[in-house]
Amino acid sequence: MSSLLINQPKYSWLKELGLSEDNLGVYNGSWGGSGEVVTSYCPANNEPIARVTQATLAEYEETVQKAREAWKVWADIPAPKRGEIVRQIGDALRKKIKVLGSLVSLEMGKIYVEGVGEIQEYVDVCDYAVGLSRMIGGPILPSERPGHALLEQWNPVGLVGIITAFNFPVAVYGWNNAIALTCGNVCLWKGAPTTPLTSVAVTKIVAEVLEQNNLPGAICSMTCGGADIGTAMAKDERVDLLSFTGSTHVGKLVAMMVQERFGRKLLELGGNNAIIVFEDADLNLVVPSAVFASVGTAGQRCTTTRRLMLHESVHDKVVERVAKAYKQVRIGDPWDPSTLYGPLHTIQAVEQYLAAIEQAKQQGGTVVCGGKVMDRPGNYVEPTIITGLPHDAPIVHTETFVPILYVLKFNTEEEAFAWNNEVKQGLSSSIFTKDLGRVFRWMGPKGSDCGIVNVNIPTSGAEIGGAFGGEKHTGGGRESGSDSWKQYMRRSTCTINYSKDLPLAQGIKFE
Ligand SMILES: NC(=O)c1ccc[n+]([C@@H]2O[C@H](COP(=O)([O-])OP(=O)(O)OC[C@H]3O[C@@H](n4cnc5c(N)ncnc54)[C@H](O)[C@@H]3O)[C@@H](O)[C@H]2O)c1
After folding, report:
1. What is the percent of the chain where pLDDT is above 70?
2. Which residue, among 180, 182, 173, has the nearest Cα to 222 in the 3D structure?
3. pLDDT tens-digit series, residues 131-166
4. Which of left, alpha, beta for 262 (phi over 0: left; psi -120 to 50: alpha)?
């Protein structure tokens, strides 16, 4: 049996994050955990990194109670002062950005710069939330009744449960955490069971800030676990908003459980994103965009390009150039600075990759590049391009969370827009064109039906300033920037009579 990586001198930096061989997976002001022990494995070599003891349902129960107690303190703190705490969280993350980014790379398997990029996103959203802490508010509206004021008051919902996916083990929590806190909520986080060390390391950084400010640590609680803890959160009436990021399949189960209790939910589910390349596109932008968005993070982003639709006049040329670029992608250990492409997260994902390629072949596809598992330790597969499939082949309409790009050939704009929209998912979409009219048609009512609608850039790599999320089976939620904060608050329409009369709305007389 191999020893844990954390004990090897090469990985001693993990201790800078407060991690050890065995880690407690519950935080609610104090650390605990007496549930199932999970070992976290490195996807690049399948070696065990360290262990985490997850929460029991009893510990979940205790944590919810402590979080709700903590809310009584947090909700009374003025929003700009809450923003100051969020600012300190951002600063604490800045200090650990490299080492935390390295952990993300080691545990999730994404390349180092992307691991660091995730922490940067959390830092950026903290900065954004600090500004927001002095700006959130509702309008004062004209009342039709004399001597009356009509206004909107926004209040925190209370306890925000946050369930996150393996592929963004820091950033997704960060988006939710920074905005939810600023709005006056407390958080309870359950990360993915295959990235528990990242959940523990992030929570240690956040907890230190709270404790230094003499605030209850349960303001940012964490219960590591799997479907058991996730289900408990979905069914729990005390979880005032459940923010769920993950697959459409699990998201649907979660959504039904939350709806059953008329709870609030924010769903960020699967995508099946397309890049559409028109005859007038600048191919010098198209090729690196298609490669970044389909090969980046080894195809494990919700915004990964899975369908590349090429106008028939540029089809062969683009396939040739993209396939050539695929062969030059540097594959290696994700923490090696020169690597552009790392492993899949799990062995199961390798099986899904092989099964999807088989199905694609059966449905009429031709593998023009890749298609094989790589002969090296870890979960490495070749980035793959498949041509010749019908636009509506079942495999093309499926989000397989691996680096397989389906190339489709189209003739008209109408056809391409229709194919973009015909899948169940509605997350991200891009066109490449110089035609200004087409750009506005793409953004308009008969254009892309996705939450993210891009022009001359890839489908992945969103900024935090905009609202992030998608329509249809992607769940309809919006996180991060713009007015996404509204999802973390409840709106009260308040009418105040400051006159001595009682006029009724719509001129109704009741006397
Ligand atoms: N739209 C977005 O913003 C976004 C972002 C990242 C990932 N994703 C999607 O996430 C998926 C990949 O992530 P994954 O494989 O970790 O997803 P997943 O659905 O398997 O797991 C997501 C989370 O749900 C938890 N979970 C599992 N069963 C549950 C249950 N019955 N009740 C409650 N929680 C439960 C898991 O433990 C995990 O924390 C892809 O489909 C991807 O598109 C979407």
Report:
1. 100
2. 173
3. 999 999 999 999 999 999 999 999 999 999 999 999
4. left
DSSP 3-state of 312: coil
- At the top level of CATH, which class does the domain 5-269+475-491 belong to? alpha beta
Q: How far is the CA of 120 from the centre of ligand 1 (A)?
A: 22
Tens digits of residue pLDDT in 287-322: 999 999 999 999 999 999 999 999 999 999 999 999
Alpha helix positions (H), 363-426: 413-421
> 3-class DSSP state for residue 34?
coil
> What's residue 1's pLDDT?
46
- Dihedral sign from CA coordinates of 203, 204, 205, 209: positive
Q: Which of 107, 108, 166 gets mutated to test ligand 1 (max ligand atoms within 8 A of its CB)?
A: 166
CA 236 to centroid of ligand 1, rounded, Å: 19
Helix 112-132 vs helix 79-95: crossing angle, to nearest 10: 160
Token pair of 282 as six digits:
């600048």
Q: Whose CA is nearest to atom 1 of ligand 1?
A: 268
Percent of the chain with pLDDT over 90: 99
Q: Is the CB of 363 within 6 Å of ligand 1?
A: no
User: Could you state, in order of their start, the residue ranges of all structural domains in the chain?
Assistant: 5-269+475-491, 273-463
- Return the H-helix or E-strand segment holding 428: strand 428-432
Collect all residues with Cβ–Cβ distance below 8 Å to 77 and sequence separation of at least 6. 85, 184
Calculate the alpha carbon distances from 96 to 93, 112, 220, 240 in Å. 5, 14, 18, 31
pLDDT in tens, 34-69: 999 999 999 999 999 999 999 999 999 999 999 999
User: What is the value of pTM for the model shown?
Assistant: 0.98
**d(C-alpha 126, C-alpha 110), whole Å:** 23
What number does the ligand 1 atom closest to the CA of 192 have?
Answer: 39
- Testing ligand 1's pocket by substitution, the residue of 245, 256, 266, 304 carrying the most ligand atoms inside 8 A of its CB is 245
Cα-flanking dihedrals φ and ψ of residue 466, to 5°? -90, 165
Closest ligand 1 atom to 268 CA: 1
358 catalytic? Reply is no
| Residues forming beta bridges with residue 472, ordered by sequence position | 425
* Ligand 1 proximity of 450 Cβ (cutoff 6 Å): no
Tell me: pLDDT of 2 over 70. Answer: no
CB of 269 within 6 A of ligand 1: the answer is: yes
Place of tokens 């920074």: 178
CA-atom Rg of the chain in angstroms: 24
Q: How far is the CA of 223 from the centre of ligand 1 (A)?
A: 16
Q: Please provide the CATH number assigned to the domain covering 273-463.
A: 3.40.309.10
- pLDDT for residue 245 is more than 60: yes
Query: Ligand 1 within 6 A of 229 CB?
Result: no
